[in-house]
């Protein structure tokens, strides 16, 4: 802690003088509406059946060369839900009303949470998907509808219908019976639809053995010990007298309890039958009962406790089990991506990322094997690794020293050139203030946000972590601009143009970390996979692009309302205008800039090229804040599949790298 304080003192001492930014040489221009151009999404249509198609102008071709990609393979079941929560859903849903359970013409209606984060809802959803995608005989499939319930705003009719008021619940159309509790629902599905991809052995004796095995799995407590270890003994919610108010638990004890459960799962449960699943070669209800919680634990432990269970050499059977499940289409549809779950745990449980998020703990045997392998390395290999690490640290030190030496000039250049400094005539909203007739100065919150983001970049270079995200949305918005500009245009800031290539690269890495984590702590930037027609990346990209386009108006409003881009008041300037005496609204130029960058994002997803950048730095500044915020808003599987969510976030990161 003392080292951190010393580093903070050393870094923050660079900002002692108020900053006055010179006026721009030319008045900023209004952002022109996006016109069709090479590599740009030109049109998107949704017919009355909800089928989505779009036309894209291919990059590096004449405007007459277009491609039209149909949506059936990537948006099967996707549905818009205007005026409802959520506004769109990846599967067929009914309005959140009591009569929806009776109106459905399908055998099963599943009532689940709106966010699709609940592990118990995922169990039932996965079972229904496994039965719905059964391909042996079409008539054996079990089609279903969903009704979505907000966990913190459950309607009274649902509380009356389900005594526990918990989700999930299932209504069977045949007789109107309602069943709740996920295990009871799974058993009811097997009883009512035994021939639709049976999830338990059909032989009665084997079925009984499987159910007894399931009791053992539940008794091992790997889900409870895993959540306890990941959360430090806490669960969602803070209230007086809760675990949050108790003395901190012994983390060593929590880890030991989880490892004991994991070793039983690895050595006893997964080795009982030959094959990757709990019953051997056949996927079953037992896998469904275990994966929903272990999916969440597997996503959270590497981030918050530096413990990897999905690809840990100490637990090969567990790794093979995760890998086999990841190949199943039904699981791909209902599972979440890691960043969604990690962001959820941070917000709902107050967790903070570990110091070395990608570290992997191993058993004593695996550690011994690793030590033996390391000992077997030649002296040349050891020396080469040490030299490489030394060169990397030298590059970081060079970048840090240069940034510290010219921090004041760097901040001035960011303020003057990035588009965050806007005078009263700017259509993007003013960020300068003139007090008592004095020369206009950049509003204090704007200047402080830029300064603090530069400090975060310096911390990333010096300490390996940028530290906590900005404490307000306005600070995050201006901080995003600062990090994006510094990464892409560092040669125009202070004396940073004199950095060696290696030091410049490390500066970019640090800026990327600060930018990606402007709105969420501990988030890692992702690498975008260009879509090649027919590839998995193309399908995921197409799904993400179509959902963004279909919900673009709502997305723009969400960004403007919550990102800190739209502001009122004197302290940080205002982006609201009143036209012809009408009620004030967000400046059209600001809205256009957000829309433009969403179009660049969807174009990149569909074609692999984002197309031309904006020329106005003010519009680029709005775009940087918009995409930095938006990348952490969408989530799987509420908005799109896990694969599409990963591709979407990676595309945001790619466009952010190309803002200036």
TrEMBL record:
GO terms for cellular component: cytoplasm. This is GST C-terminal domain-containing protein. PROSITE patterns: GST_CTER (PS50405). Residues 204-351 form the GST C-terminal domain. The lineage of its organism: Eukaryota, Viridiplantae, Chlorophyta, core chlorophytes, Chlorophyceae. InterPro entries: Glutathione-S-Trfase_C-like, Glutathione-S-Trfase_C_sf, Glutathione_S-Trfase, Glutathione_S-Trfase_N, GST_Omega/HSP26, Thioredoxin-like_sf. PANTHER family: GLUTATHIONE S-TRANSFERASE, PTHR43968. It comes from Tetradesmus obliquus. Transmembrane segments: none annotated. It holds the Pfam family GST_C_2. CDD domains: GST_N_family (cd00570).
